[in-house]
Amino acid sequence: MQISxxxxxxxxxxxxxxxxxxxxxxxxxxxxxxxxxLMHAGPTVGVVGSKLLALALGGFCVWANKAHVVRWISxxxxxxxxxxxxxxxxxxxx
Length: 94
Prior knowledge:
Blueprint: H1 5-25, H2 33-38, H3 43-63, H4 67-90
Helix pairs in contact: 1-3, 1-4
């Protein structure tokens, strides 16, 4: 069974959500101004909202048959998850 780029995209969204929430739990802040604006409703609500928006845009790409866009953005999210992990590892232990 081959994993599709759409499955990878959804998996990366989940990993980004989880690493971001863990980062919040250990005291790391959000770097993205867009996500910070969404977080006025609460940190979890803001990040979940951004993930729902990302999944909706991914769904649009599926509908528009733009797998190359989903593939390209998946590389970005993969790098973002690595960034989240590095920031968490560098955070001081409280």
